Each structure stands twice: as structure tokens, then as C-alpha cells.
Amino acid sequence: MSQTTTWNSQSAPAHDQTPEAEWWRSSTIYQVYPRSWVDSNGDGVGDLPGITSKLPYLRDLGVDALWISPFYRSPMADAGYDVADYRDIDPLFGSLSDADDLIARAHELDLRVIVDLVPNHSSDEHEWFKAALAAGPGSPERERYMFRDGKGENGEEPPNDWKAIFGGNAWTRVTDADGNPEQWYLHLFDPKQPDFNWNNEAVREEFLSILRFWLDRGVDGFRVDVAHSLVKADGLPDHSAHAKMAGLSDANHDNGGPMWDQDGVHEIYRAWREVLDSYNPVDDERYDSAGDRAMCAEAWVNPPERLARYVRPDEFHQAFNFAFLETPWRASDLRESIASSYASNDAVGAPTTWVLSNHDVVRHATRLALPIGEPRPNGIRAEDPQPDAALGLCRAKAATALELALPGGAYLYQGEELGLPEHTTMADEARQDPTWERSEHTEAGRDGCRVPMPWAKDAPSFGFGSGDAPWLPQPDVYGDLAVDQQDGVPGSTLEFYRHMLRERRARRLGEGALTWVEGPADTVAFVNSRDGHEDLWCVTNFGGATTLPDDAVVVVRSDERDDLTVPTDVTVWFTRA
Ligand code: NOJ
């Protein structure tokens, strides 16, 4: 039965229209996970020429930019987040000239390119780390990393009690040339990812130079990995709790540890911002404003006011809004999450971003079918209860429609436009995420969201590449969800995304003001208004079926009805006649 409603909007906007027109304030940015997008040479792993070949797909999808996860030289102990050379491309992915081609082609297609920067740690195969091991205790080479003597009579105990995100101890003891145990080094993640010492001037200088290296090649910005961990508390005090980083370990936030969100990180980003601002736009008439390079912080920091410190006017341009990603699928929680995101970002003049999936979390087409309000698992295994795929997709489409109607920037993760679910039945032997081994098989890890893209149902590896064996196995269901099965098909998830992105761009929704609407119970309803454009109304229904006002003209809806009914778990965008 329909409920009655007033559909009145509040008089004061909860978020004002974006006054400035910088692209990063309102763009839609698509994350490409290079290992898993397109494999152009049939070796089972995606690569840069593969990405370049599919850039027209992104232009047609209607996004403004792509962010590419790390493609640098790396032993791939953490899928490239263990960088051995920040100024070169791993041969697995191609060459520097392939990167130049990619950037140039993207710019031709009006797509901006964001690259991933990993400053907290390098690979243990980085030249600096090898030099640190060779040079021994007390050397300037060791000073660039976090080496310490162990505790105990013979230094046999780690310097403190920190645990690594992927499981196990955060310290590993090294041996000298004769095989005798000596100092320990810190690694917040895998032992193959030694943490840099950010109190060391050489480290700071090196990263300023790396920023320039990529800016000179024409990139439009950076996504900065674990931006909240570079500086550790003085004296590296014990931290009795597990060194959790919310996104990777579990949903029980504990960002207050001595390794996270220390005040000292901010001066680093102020220096970086100066470098970005010093770059004149690339030689292209579209880039007509100074300072258009942007950087986005991956910082799992709570509460939102604390995160907002990273996006003060002289620091990052954006930060991922993981609080939104983690908000339970409930009207009241989402309204509160959206409102607090705007309040904290507006207070520092920064745009809010919205994100639902990435390469570290269970895909939202699966996650949203999990029991509401329970901690988010780090991967799902075949032996775990299997989420309801239809419910997950229904909610995922509603959630994305809500996300894309919100003013601010939006991040999409490759394959979500196909409605790809998590691979929840992957054989344990196929797992590559170090989490699986390091957690002693207690956490499945992130492989299930990193499975190669299906482009064509009847091709080898569903069109991902000519080889038969992609680096991670694809579930059978990916065949029916392949791009060629959805392209041009009315009602497909792909066409739904294209339609939303077209409307979002044409109506400039990213730049709007948001005013809450008093909709039916159990809904999230708001108006997005922009000068010179019709008001766009958005409602997401979490309760029993309800109806739109009589004068509603539907623009987008996440289901396939063609009347004014809004069933449970559906989002509708509409205007008023
Ligand atoms: C966050 C990245 O998103 C994740 O994939 C990686 O494992 C860690 N940082 C460590 O670099």
C-alpha cells in the first residue's frame, strides 16, 4: 500500500552549490585495476596497452577520469602496492612509452588520468632498501626506513607490539652478511613492504621529485595510498590493540593508534600541494585554469572532521569517503552519513567524494546483500553463507543511483557498471592476496573483488585476454554479465550506468546544492539544484513500496518499472512537471 507524503523540501540547503568550477570538485572517476582490466599480450595479466585500447569504452561510459592502481616496477607481493622503482613501469604492464601513449590517448578522448602513489612503504626490492640492508646499523641508508634494535637481552624481541595489517608482526628481523640476526624493520603491511622513515629529509625530497616526474609526463593527479600513515608517533609507543586499518582488516575502526593519522602528516601534503599548484596546465586548450592537477587521499580516518583536515585548502583536493561506503543500508544511517560528510567538508571548502567499491572491499553488488549493520568481511569464501545475488544487485543499483545524484565527486570501480558480484566461491589455492597466508587463512582477503573483467561471453577468459588462464579465475556468472551481453541492451546494468552518467553530466549534478526532502518514511530524499538547470529530485526507498508525487517525471530509475511506484530498494531521479 502506498504511503502519503508531503514531498516538501526543507528551506535551507544542507550543502550549497559548488562555487568554483575545478574539475575535481564534481568529476566521476573510474578506477582501473591494471592487472584485471584488459590483457593485450595473452600472459594472463592486464597491461597498459590493454587499458589504452579500451579508453573509448570509458569515454562512452561517460566518466571524466580514470585512476589507475600501481603499474610501477614491483615484485608484486601486494599486487603492485610494493614498488621497487617509482619511475618505471613493471614489464608485466608495459613500458614508460606505453604509459605516455595511454596518457596522450586519454587526453585526446577528454579523459583525465590519475596515477597511484605509494609513499608509506616501498618494496624490499627497492634499491634504497637493498642499500639499507647492505650498509648496516647506524648508516644513512638505514635512516630512510624504520630500522630499530630489538628488545630483550639479545634484541630477539620486536621493538614494539605493533601488528601488521595483513596479519602477523609488523616487524621483521634482518640478518647480517654472516647470517647473524641484527636489527628489525617496520612494515605496517607485508614484510616485503618496508615503511619509509618520513622524518628523513631524503625521503621527503625523493617523493617531491617523484611527483614532478609524473606531473612532467602529463598526469592529472595522484591517488595517495594510506595517506594517514606516513608519520608515526614519536618513540613508536606500544599499541595494545591490533594495528587495524579499517578498510583492510575489519570494520571495527581503530584509527587512533600511533601509526595512523598523526598530526605530522599534514606538513608533508602541504609541500606536495605546492608542487601540484606550481604546475601549469598541460598544453591543451581544455586546461584553462592554473592548478588543475589534483590529489586524493586514501585515508581511513574517523570521524569525518578528522578526515576533513586532509582536504584543507592547502592539502589534498579530495579524500575518499569510506564512511559512506561503510554506512549500513538504512535510511537513517545514510541520511546521517551524507549530512555529516557535507558538514565536515563544507567547513574546509572541500568537495565531498562518494565511493561504494574498490579493489580492497567486497564489491557492493554482493556486500549490500550481507546482513545489514554487521561488520564488513574481508572477502567471502565458498564455505561462507552465500549472499543473495539478486538482492545485492537491486540494492547496488539503488545505491549507485543515490551516489551519482549527490553533489560532489564520485568514484566507480571497474566492473561495477556490469553489476559484477564478488567472486565468493574462488578456490583457496587461487588466492594471491598476502592477507590469506599472513592471516593464517582466517581472512579470505581481497581477491574476490579483483577478478579480471569480462568483455565478451564466448571468448577465452571472457575477452579479458587471449590466454586461457587469467591471473585470478573468473566465476561462470561473469560470462552472462560480459560487456557484449549488456552493450545496447535496454535494462542492462551497463546501459543503466551509461544513462545515469549522461544525465549526471548534462545536468551538472556534481556541482549542485543539496536540500533534504521530507519524503515517505524509510526513504532518503533530496533535491539537487543548480543555477540554470531544473531541480533534480532523488528518492531511495528502504521501506515498503511508496509512490512519487503525481507531477513527477522520471529521469532515471534503478528498476525497470514505468509508473510512479517506488518499490523497496529502488532509487528514482525525477523532475516535477
Ligand atoms: C591500500 C591499498 O588500496 C591496498 O590495496 C594496499 O594493499 C595497501 N594500501 C598497502 O599499500
UniProtKB/TrEMBL annotation:
One of its GO terms (molecular function) is hydrolase activity. Residues 1-20, 428-452 are annotated as: Disordered. SUPFAM superfamilies: (Trans)glycosidases (SSF51445). InterPro entries: GH (IPR017853), GH13_cat_dom (IPR006047), O16G_dom_2 (IPR045857). The keyword Transferase does not apply. The keyword Hydrolase applies. Residues 1-12 have a biased composition (Polar residues). Coiled coil: none annotated. Belongs to the glycosyl hydrolase 13 family. This is Glycoside hydrolase family 13 protein. It comes from Dermacoccus abyssi.
